[in-house]
Design a protein that fits this description.
Rossmann fold; elongated; binds GDP-alpha-D-glucose
């Protein structure tokens, strides 16, 4: 993996809701104070580390909400701050409203706490635009723009619209919910969230589950095509993947024995005088599972009386969002249950619960981590949970055991911890006992395994991994760049056409002369296209060949009186005007009887799919089947066919748009076109097509000819056009000249 200084970008622009510093006024002086949070400490540690390694760190610009004054301050040597000012009234509805009363509860599966308020949504849009206004002033070519979290869902797309070539990464710090949860949002909201995110080149989540939920929603809600983790967003590739955020492992591990921590540890040990310590530390939030946790601890005290007088649970709650009513009520409830527990079990010489509602300094936090015999991390839902990782990293000299909720992203990596479901009071109570009685060797064995993992994928590897993959996605996108036909090339082609004496048109039908439709029977050419073709055919210098995978019957019906040469079944049959259909190859068709029962099975196993039996081939269409089921069945069918085809070397499987076709290798669109081209002296040849079967055709067109593929897929054709409707325009160019 490349290190940060080896990755190809000039400046790093980080965008997050909050700036990493805020101004605090003391008397008449302002002081800059660092905001807490994983991202801030990650970036600070990263720049410190790069400096200590004497590596050049790219310039960092940080855009976030904050007072205007912050931009004047020289707060940190590694980066400059660019505050976005959001009027108070808007911020209340944006941050307090849409962010914390709509997205946060919904994405943490608290559906009944979710508020659906149009004015919140409008404020969210306004605020994202304010962020963009600031960003727009800053962006320069070569910048890497890294946008963070659920407050800025619309921003990647806003940047993309104005800066199509920008390198944009997006990272979501909270869970991404399953489709069924996301669809609770009004259609427009959920579409805008997904579209906003897909403006980025790379979209990072803490776990693979979140990434998959996102991809599924993108498929179902936006209808975008997806190949593994790659999403096709209007001719651009966006990747969605898991990047479980790491911590600065050494910072925690090494802090266990520094002076300030030692002093705190001593105080705590004096207070404990031999009792075991259980801790938890989280922001005040209903997602963190305080009530279930307290009930489990209460049950533990009831079920395991042998621990009375021998254990203390230090529950630290960091003040957060307490302007929101729901948070105030939660605090009240926590305090009521805490009081009940101490009231029931406490005595003058033992309080089983020490509850704190305040922030604590770093060294005190590490002291608690280091000394705790059990960490009780039991959120009902948590994107990752850094406290769990910090606790593991702070096991140094003294070893405890982590109890972790399976509803956290962290549980995915911390397999050696004791996993619980936070709603299971009984099992959580048992887990506390299990952690406290776990033999030392077992704790050490489990902790070292987890430490190893956290050391390897720490916060530095996390950022590097993200930037590396971002760069790779960008390369992939560059390689996919196709050559779109422009006006001047089109004029050049027309010029050639006008001067040519013998011209050949090879035109595919579905997707080229008509747009693709759900039911192939209704794919009928419109009158406009028909008129264009008639004009072309009327010119005696032109030969127009319609070359399709369709059956003879279909072609006859569509093109009855047109006077074009017809090629059916991918080149197997040809019919010249006024003549009968002729075969272009001699093939044995007995294989169809062997394949038919297999395809019949797949019709049963994939609702909505159909078999199309042609004279020379068989096709399995799944355009109307459920996307998810079809994507599984198509792979199974390909596997089954591969086995059969071992004994049928003359057969091939063609993959078209939502169709799999089995045919002989003895003919294709290319071989029949070669035959036609070689039989005459054309001085102008053009081939138009839209899918993979047309690639055979594009390949054989001489260099002096022209080839055009509809859509943005990489192709053997010289040019792409964005959509089918442009075909009419191209044909009209030629028919004008004929007139
Ligand atoms: C969101 C997601 C995801 C907290 N109190 C004090 C303090 N902290 C530090 C901790 C830890 C961080 O704050 C809290 O991080 P969490 O991960 O536990 O939770 P959220 O704030 O909800 O963060 C979460 C995270 O983003 C990162 O992507 O893991 O799932 O919800 O680093 O150490 N630090 C000090 N004193 C405190 O009182 N010094």
């Amino acid at each position: 993996m490349k290190t940060l200084d080896q990755i190809n970008f000039k400046r790093l622009i980080i965008v997050s809701y909050r700036l990493p510093f805020k101004l605090v006024r003391k008397k008449d002086e302002y002081y800059a104070v660092q905001n807490s949070g994983g991202l801030v400490s990650a970036i600070l540690s990263l720049s410190d580390k790069m400096q200590s390694l004497e590596r050049t760190m790219p310039e960092i610009l940080w855009v976030g909400m904050g007072e205007k004054k912050l931009s004047d301050e020289n707060i940190h040597s590694s980066f400059r701050l660019f505050p976005v000012e959001i009027p108070r009234k808007i911020n209340d509805k944006y941050y307090g409203g849409f962010c914390n009363n709509t997205i946060w509860p919904l994405f943490h599966y608290f559906t009944s706490s979710t508020k659906y308020d149009t004015s919140y949504f409008e404020a969210y849009k306004t605020a994202n635009n304010l962020f963009f206004d600031k960003l727009r002033e800053l962006i320069e070519p070569g910048d890497l723009i890294w946008i963070h979290d659920y407050q800025l869902f619309f921003l990647p797309e806003l940047v993309r619209q104005s800066f199509p070539k920008a390198l944009i990464g997006f990272f979501l710090h909270i869970p991404f919910p399953s489709f069924e949860i996301l669809r609770l949002l009004p259609v427009k909201w959920r579409e805008m969230i997904l579209k906003g995110m897909t403006g980025a080149d790379l979209i990072g989540f803490h776990t693979n589950d979140y990434a998959q939920y996102f991809i599924r929603s993108v498929k179902r809600i936006l209808g975008y095509k997806v190949d593994r983790n790659y999403i096709n967003v209007n001719n651009r590739i966006t990747k969605a993947d898991a990047f479980p955020i790491g911590i600065d492992f050494d910072k925690f591990h090494d802090a266990c024995f520094v002076g300030k921590t030692e002093q705190k540890k001593k105080k705590i040990m004096d207070f404990l005088s031999g009792k075991k310590l259980v801790f938890s530390l989280d922001r005040l939030d209903y997602s963190k599972g305080f009530i279930h946790r307290l009930k489990a601890y209460e049950r533990f005290l009831e079920k395991y009386p042998e621990w009375h007088f021998k254990v203390v649970f230090n529950m630290i709650v960091i003040p957060s969002r307490d302007i929101i009513q729901e948070y105030r009520l939660l605090r009240k409830e926590i305090e009521a249950i805490s009081g009940r527990i101490n009231g029931k079990y406490g005595t003058l010489d033992w309080m089983p619960l020490v509850y704190q509602y305040k922030s604590i300094p770093f060294h005190e936090m590490v002291a608690i981590y280091n000394l705790s015999d059990a960490g009780l991390i039991t959120p009902l839902r948590d994107g990752m949970n850094l406290v769990a990782k910090e606790y593991i990293a702070s096991q140094n000299g003294h070893y405890g055991m982590l109890i972790i909720s399976e509803m956290t992203g962290a549980a995915v990596e911390l397999n050696e911890a004791i996993t619980i479901n936070p709603t299971d009071t009984e099992k959580t109570a048992d887990a506390i006992n299990q952690a406290l009685i776990m033999p030392e060797e077992e704790k050490i064995r489990r902790i070292l395994k987890m430490q190893n993992r956290l050391k390897r994928y720490d916060i530095f590897t996390w950022t590097n991994d993200f930037f590396n993959q971002l760069e790779d996605t960008k390369k992939e996108n560059d390689s996919l760049q196709v050559n779109f036909l422009n006006e001047s090339t089109l004029n050049h082609i027309r010029e050639k056409y006008c001067h040519a004496k013998k011209r050949l048109f090879l035109i595919d039908y579905d997707g080229t002369l008509t747009s693709l439709v759900k039911t192939p029977d209704t794919a009928i050419m419109n009158d406009n296209t028909r008129t264009m073709l008639e004009d072309l055919i009327a010119d005696s210098r032109n030969t127009v060949i319609i070359i399709s995978g369709r059956t003879r019957e279909f072609m006859d019906e569509q093109f009855k009186d047109l006077g074009a040469v017809l090629v059916a079944e991918h080149g197997f049959f040809t019919r010249y005007p006024g003549n009968n259909w002729v075969n272009n190859a001699e093939i044995n068709l007995s294989w169809k009887n062997r394949i038919r029962p297999l395809l019949d099975d797949y019709i049963d196993r994939c609702n909505g799919s159909v078999i199309e039996e042609k004279y020379s081939s068989m096709a399995w269409h799944y355009r109307n089947a459920d996307e998810d089921i079809a994507s599984i069945r198509i792979n199974e069918l390909k596997d089954d066919l591969r086995e059969i085809l071992v004994n049928e070397p003359k057969l091939q499987v063609l993959e078209g748009d939502k169709v799999l076709e089995i045919k002989s290798i003895l003919y294709d669109k290319g071989s029949i076109a070669t035959h036609i081209i070689n039989n005459d002296n054309y001085d102008f040849i053009i081939a138009l097509g839209d899918d993979s079967t047309d690639e055979d055709l594009f390949k054989i067109i001489p260099e002096s000819g022209f080839t055009i593929r509809v859509g943005s897929k990489p192709t053997n054709a010289r040019f792409n056009i964005k959509n089918q409707s442009q075909i009419v325009k191209i044909l009209s160019f030629f028919s004008d000249c004929s007139r």
